[in-house]
Design brief:
About 30% of the residues lie in helices and about 30% in strands. It is of the alpha+beta class and about 130 residues long. It has one domain (about 5-10, about 25-125). Strand 3 (about 50-55) and strand 4 form a beta hairpin. InterPro entries: LWR_salt.
């Protein structure tokens, strides 16, 4: 059972040493960052509910702080963060659905499909890991 939240992060590189410059726009780069998704029901598994809305980052500043922490970069270096997908295998997705179903009230939803749509939009990508 495996899953990861995938983000695109745009950041600006700043030299850590005096006398070194990054010229013009060459200092701006975009990277793809994958963050392991905690197993459903374990600590941190509600990351999608707390950080995403309709498949988009719910709070841009919070996402920038998270990305800065993940990458070990200063907050000022992180220019933009966008959610790309929850990349998952079928077993993780089924476990996620089962865990969501145990407490739909916490998501203010009538069914699991509504929860997935509300927070992840159409950004769930199931991959075969065999």
């Amino acid at each position: 059972m495996e899953a990861a939240y995938v983000f695109r992060v745009r950041l600006r590189l700043e030299p850590a040493t005096g006398g070194v410059r990054v010229d013009g726009d060459s200092g701006e780069t975009t990277v793809t960052v994958s963050r392991d998704a905690p197993d459903p029901g374990t600590e941190g598994w509600l990351f999608f509910r707390n950080a995403l809305w309709r498949g988009e980052v719910g709070d841009a500043e919070h996402a920038r702080r998270l990305a800065a922490d993940w990458l070990g970069e200063p907050l000022g270096a992180i220019e933009d963060v966008s959610f790309r997908e929850l990349r998952t295998d079928g077993a993780y997705l089924e476990a996620l659905k089962a865990e969501i179903a145990t407490d739909l009230e916490a998501f203010n939803a009538d069914d699991v499909s509504e929860v997935l749509s509300k927070y992840l939009g159409s950004s769930i990508h199931v991959v075969d890991r065999t």
